């Protein structure tokens, strides 16, 4: 086992996605995730992630690799990387936030939540339903009641666009 | 087997949406929007509403020290079922605190703190001299007492507020709130207004009239700083003349009539970057001997600057 020999070789982990794809990454990259870190501390080197699908995992591994190499000089580069990272569809963002939440990567969670929040600000309820595939389950009477309460608290125009 | 896998994918793609996330995660996202956004999102569906109305979201919109502010309230505050109800209440019902000397409310769009320092909370030179200033109660005031000017030459009013009691990293504007019972002297005499850090001489002293329709009296009509011109002389209306040289035309605060019937005059802006800064808000006319009377002072209001 790795614990018995002090090798200079980098310790590696294998992550297994919900779609059964396996990815080998350096332990130092993986432990930015609290979930992975806890498993590593318990001696695991093979980490099954039943809640994370391959598509999201590939992106998240990219993110972890980039942020593991953070230095004083590549601040701008990482900012550009982060900006590109979140420049994707709402559906992808939700898959990523769901995975980041499961993996407990707090800086990624904050960035994704802020991105989603910024993009849904000012949206009308109708637009939010379409973006998030949510069916309205209010009766017209219930909806009217809530609209009235909101109007008493705030007024203003809604943004109907879906991007 | 292949077909089954395809079906699973379809199922998953329709399920990945806001509501498949843990509730805490949705609450985090909602708390990063704004109070009116979250209210609106409660219309999306019943399940989103339960998160949108939750205390974990609204606690983020309330100031971190809201409990201790409410504890200073002079009047009992109703029991609220939720922090959202408390937020809506505080953004529509300013509460009197500190023995009725201050008023506290929330700016409804952002939840930022607003304070209104009542006349009793201000420093008014000669304020305890009954021949100059009287204290009275007015039904149209939110405070139990307002200051009423009998007559004075040395008019000097200032208040202080520590930046740390306001919302952090926020631009605020301060307003002097008043009305006239009689505007004697105020129509021809301008005031000096300033906002700055206490103990540091303010570089932003501006001149402004409290009177909504003032007349400008050129300094050369003064016999001396201590001999003001007679108010019965015919002076020029402000719009007909150039303002005094020291006034930048873009930097000319004018009084505004508020919805509550009082006037307000902008004193200046400040930024709450350093919580230990003690901000001084000042309005005065101490350079001439002009007699003034009939001013009623409600206080100084401090609210977030509208971008």
UniProtKB/TrEMBL annotation, chain A:
InterPro entries: SKP1 (IPR016897), SKP1-like (IPR001232), SKP1-like_dim_sf (IPR036296), SKP1/BTB/POZ_sf (IPR011333), Skp1_comp_dimer (IPR016072), Skp1_comp_POZ (IPR016073). It comes from the Eukaryota. Keywords: Ubl conjugation pathway. Residues 11-69 form the SKP1 component POZ domain. Part of a SCF (SKP1-cullin-F-box) protein ligase complex. Involved in ubiquitination and subsequent proteasomal degradation of target proteins. Together with CUL1, RBX1 and a F-box protein, it forms a SCF E3 ubiquitin ligase complex. The functional specificity of this complex depends on the type of F-box protein. In the SCF complex, it serves as an adapter that links the F-box protein to CUL1. This is SKP1-like protein. It comes from Datura stramonium.
TrEMBL record, chain B:
PROSITE patterns: FBOX. Residues 15-61 form the F-box domain. Pfam families: F-box (PF00646), PP2 (PF14299). This is F-box domain-containing protein. It comes from Datura stramonium (Jimsonweed).
């Amino acid at each position: 086992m790795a614990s018995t020999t002090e090798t200079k070789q980098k310790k590696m982990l294998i992550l297994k996605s919900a779609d059964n794809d396996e990815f080998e990454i350096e332990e130092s990259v993986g432990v930015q995730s609290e979930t992975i870190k806890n498993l590593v501390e318990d001696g695991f080197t093979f980490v099954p992630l039943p809640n994370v699908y391959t598509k999201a995992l590939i992106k998240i591994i990219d993110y972890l690799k980039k942020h593991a190499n953070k230095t004083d000089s590549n601040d701008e580069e990482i900012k550009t990387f982060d900006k590109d990272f979140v420049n994707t569809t709402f559906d992808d963002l939700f898959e990523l936030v769901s995975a980041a939440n499961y993996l407990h990567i707090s800086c990624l969670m904050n960035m994704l939540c802020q991105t989603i929040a910024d993009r849904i600000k000012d949206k009308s309820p109708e637009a939010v339903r379409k973006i998030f595939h949510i069916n309205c389950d209010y009766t017209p009477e219930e909806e009217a009641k809530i609209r009235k309460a909101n109007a008493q608290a705030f007024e203003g125009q809604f943004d109907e666009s879906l991007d | 087997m292949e077909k089954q896998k395809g079906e699973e994918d379809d199922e998953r793609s329709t399920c990945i949406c806001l509501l498949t996330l843990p509730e805490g995660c949705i609450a985090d996202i909602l708390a990063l929007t704004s109070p009116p956004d979250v209210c609106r999102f409660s219309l999306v569906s019943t399940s989103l509403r339960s998160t949108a109305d939750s205390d974990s979201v609204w606690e983020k919109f309330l100031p971190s020290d809201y409990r201790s502010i409410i504890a200073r309230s002079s009047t009992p505050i109703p029991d609220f079922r939720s922090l959202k109800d408390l937020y809506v209440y505080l953004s529509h019902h300013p509460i009197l605190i500190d023995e009725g000397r201050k008023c506290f409310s929330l700016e409804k769009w952002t939840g930022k703190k607003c304070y209104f320092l009542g006349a009793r909370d201000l420093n008014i030179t000669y304020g305890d001299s009954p021949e100059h200033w009287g204290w009275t109660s007015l039904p149209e005031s939110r405070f139990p007492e307002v200051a009423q000017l009998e007559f004075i030459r040395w008019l000097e009013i200032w208040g202080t507020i520590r930046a740390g009691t306001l919302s952090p990293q926020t631009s605020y504007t301060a307003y002097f709130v008043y009305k006239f019972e009689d505007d004697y002297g105020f129509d021809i005499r301008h005031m000096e207004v300033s906002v700055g850090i206490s103990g540091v001489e303010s570089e932003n002293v501006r001149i402004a009239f409290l009177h909504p329709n003032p007349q400008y009296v050129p300094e050369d009509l003064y016999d001396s700083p201590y001999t003001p011109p007679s108010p019965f002389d015919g002076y020029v209306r402000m719009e007909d003349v150039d303002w005094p040289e020291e006034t930048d035309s873009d930097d000319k605060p004018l009084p505004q009539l508020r919805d509550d019937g009082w006037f307000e005059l902008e004193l200046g802006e400040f930024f709450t970057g350093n919580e230990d800064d003690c901000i001084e808000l000042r309005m005065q006319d101490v350079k001439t001997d002009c007699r003034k009377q009939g001013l009623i002072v409600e206080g100084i209001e401090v609210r977030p600057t509208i971008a």
